[in-house]
């Protein structure tokens, strides 16, 4: 039997909420002139952020060793300060985790966000300073809500609660610092009004046991007036499908009639869009994309229906970019914001209020506009398949997977792909796909996947000609629950952990295939 949600909400909803809604949106609307100036004068704002970061960074051990106090220009910065990956900063981070002050940023750091990007067994610990929380993560989150107000001037967003899935915060076994998923650190430090309008409550949100957290979140959410969703599409789908089943409804708007916003990020929504539409038929949902990485909050969709996310040039991050055509890791040459071009794909370089200096987080973006600067997330510098010179990147795979699912009436749970090699130098791509609803025709699914990859990627297309180098993709349907079980066994269940969609060797695919064999025994 389904819940009579509307009656429950009428009893529980306080009468003063409309005035709170108006007050909060009035407060957020004061950000509009600041956002407009930042979008109109991005290079000037980047210059200001550069000078502020340089002044603060010069007070750190890292800044002293790299001569921050002698650098005057952005050109000198690029010439004199090295590009780095995590391993180069690790000694400073480990010192900071013991409580040593001033390593990468002035002062001591109490929190470190645990990040692996994919399912690597080695976790990264990204410093989270007070300045990075206030100047970047929270400020950008408020920007998102201010932009949404412009989309929907009559929004009633704050009359209800926001449904979120956070990770958990722990004390590191070797260091005094607190560590955990960024989502948990942000949730733990939310302002009072945001905690008040979040579901689940703080106690449940920070539970370590993922299964218990999911069940207790459902217990609360089924009886709340949920007006927004925040999170990673793949994990939220798991929660929402359980909610539909437990409430006994087909359309989740029957359960949450005032739900109006889904703010999503971390992975591409496109392969999952049909699944969300199936949960909310005749949807009134507004979908709003954000680029909120562990290392920083970088961009937010600023216009409904307009491609790309607006780069946040005034939020405590200084950006540089490396054209992927010339990417050589830390030996690359980066350019400033003024030198990027529309349509080009770039590796992102960041310097932040967390003390990440000319840091390569491993993300790639594509510029869709320079007035204002808008980007699309293109993938990861290491998430690609290029075993035969085909250079298939995550963006290609996501778009092809989305269209293949749509045309075959399939719903996606997760997938990964890797190359296979034949005995005569040829080969192809092998895909393991877990469906919530399987394709009407697997052959049709494969044909659409292949055709779309050929349309999107000329290198892939040339290698597929006459099957001389690349054969038709091999696609296996995974048993339901396989990817969740795999993530669980790796200790990567929930939070911001993501399955590596593409990999240039068979490490992850073989691990999953081995688990599939055990799964089916």
In short:
By secondary structure, the protein is an alpha/beta fold.
Mean pLDDT: 89
Q: Describe the strand arrangement of the main beta sheet, using strand numbers.
A: 6-3-7-8-9-10-11-15-14-13-12
Estimated radius of gyration: 23 Å
What's the total number of strands? 20
User: Biggest sheet, open or closed, and with what strands and sense?
Assistant: 11 strands, mixed
Portion of residues in helices? 25-40%
General shape: globular
Approximate strand percentage = 15-25%
Low-confidence stretches: 1-16
Distance between the termini: 35 Å
Tally of contiguous helical segments: 20
Commentary on this structure:
The chain has an 11-stranded mixed β-sheet, with helices on both faces. Strands 2-1-5-4 form a 4-stranded mixed β-sheet. The protein has a 3-stranded mixed β-sheet with strand order 18-19-20, covered by helices on one side. 39% of the residues lie in helices and 21% in strands. It contains 20 helices and 20 strands. With 521 residues, it is α/β, with parallel strands linked by helices.
Question: Which structural traits does this protein have?
Answer:
single chain, 521 residues, alpha/beta, eleven-stranded mixed β-sheet, 20 helices, 39% helix
Set out the fold topology:
Elements: H1 5-12, H2 17-29, H3 32-40, H4 42-57, H5 61-65, H6 74-80, H7 86-97, E1 111-115, E2 124-128, H8 130-151, E3 161-164, E4 169-171, E5 178-180, H9 182-188, H10 192-196, E6 198-199, H11 202-205, H12 210-221, E7 226-231, H13 233-247, H14 252-255, E8 261-264, H15 273-279, E9 286-293, E10 296-300, E11 309-311, E12 317-323, E13 345-352, E14 363-370, E15 373-380, E16 384-385, E17 392-393, H16 394-407, E18 411-421, E19 427-437, H17 442-456, H18 458-464, E20 474-478, H19 482-489, H20 507-520
Parallel strand pairs: 1-5, 3-6, 3-7, 7-8, 8-9, 19-20
Antiparallel strand pairs: 1-2, 4-5, 9-10, 10-11, 11-15, 12-13, 13-14, 14-15, 16-17, 18-19
Helix pairs in contact: 16-17, 17-18
């Amino acid at each position: 039997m389904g819940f009579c949600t509307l009656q429950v909400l009428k009893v529980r909803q306080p009468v003063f909420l409309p005035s709170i809604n108006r007050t909060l949106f009035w407060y957020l609307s004061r950000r509009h002139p600041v956002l407009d100036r930042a979008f109109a004068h991005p290079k000037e704002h980047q210059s200001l952020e550069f000078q502020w970061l340089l002044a603060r960074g010069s007070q750190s051990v890292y800044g002293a060793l790299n001569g921050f106090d002698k650098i005057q220009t952005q050109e000198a910065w690029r010439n004199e300060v090295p590009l780095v990956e995590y391993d180069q900063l690790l000694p400073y981070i480990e010192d900071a985790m013991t409580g040593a002050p001033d390593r990468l940023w002035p002062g001591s750091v109490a929190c470190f966000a645990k990040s692996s990007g994919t399912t690597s067994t080695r976790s990264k610990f990204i410093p989270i300073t007070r300045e990075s929380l206030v100047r970047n993560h929270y400020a950008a989150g408020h920007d998102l809500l201010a932009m949404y107000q412009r989309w929907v001037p009559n929004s009633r967003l704050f009359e209800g609660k926001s449904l979120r899935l956070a990770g958990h915060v722990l004390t590191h076994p070797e260091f005094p610092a607190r560590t955990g998923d960024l989502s948990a650190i942000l949730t733990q430090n939310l302002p009072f009004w945001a905690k008040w309008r979040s579901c689940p409550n703080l106690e449940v949100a920070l539970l370590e046991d993922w299964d218990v957290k999911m069940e207790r979140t459902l217990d609360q959410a089924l009886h709340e007036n949920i007006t927004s969703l925040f999170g990673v599409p793949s994990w939220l789908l798991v929660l929402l499908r359980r909610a539909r089943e437990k409430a006994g409804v087909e359309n989740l708007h029957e359960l949450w009639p005032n739900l109006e916003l889904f703010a999503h990020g971390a992975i591409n929504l496109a392969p999952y869009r049909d699944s969300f539409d199936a949960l909310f038929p005749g949807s009134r949902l507004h979908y709003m994309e954000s680029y909120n990485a562990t290392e920083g909050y970088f961009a937010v969709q600023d216009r409904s229906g307009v491609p790309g996310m607006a780069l946040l040039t005034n939020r405590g991050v200084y950006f540089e970019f490396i054209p992927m055509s010339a990417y050589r890791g830390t030996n690359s040459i980066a350019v400033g914001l003024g030198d990027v071009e529309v349509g080009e794909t770039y590796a992102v370089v960041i310097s932040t209020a967390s003390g990440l200096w000319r840091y390569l987080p491993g993300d790639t973006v594509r510029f869709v506009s320079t007035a204002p600067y808008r980007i699309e997330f293109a993938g990861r510098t290491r998430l690609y398949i290029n075993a035969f010179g085909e250079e298939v990147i995550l963006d290609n795979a996501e778009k092809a997977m989305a269209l293949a699912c749509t045309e075959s009436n399939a719903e996606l749970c997760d997938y990964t792909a890797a190359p296979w090699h034949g005995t005569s130098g040829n080969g192809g791509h092998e895909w393991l796909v877990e469906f919530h609803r399987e394709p009407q025709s697997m052959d049709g699914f494969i044909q659409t996947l292949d055709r779309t990859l050929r349309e999107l990627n000329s290198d892939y297309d040339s290698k597929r000609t006459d099957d001389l180098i690349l054969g038709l993709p091999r696609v296996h349907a995974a048993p339901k629950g396989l990817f969740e079980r795999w993530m669980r066994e790796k200790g990567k269940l929930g939070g911001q952990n993501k399955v590596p969609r593409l990999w240039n060797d068979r490490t992850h695919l073989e691990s999953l295939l081995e688990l599939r064999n055990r799964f089916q025994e």
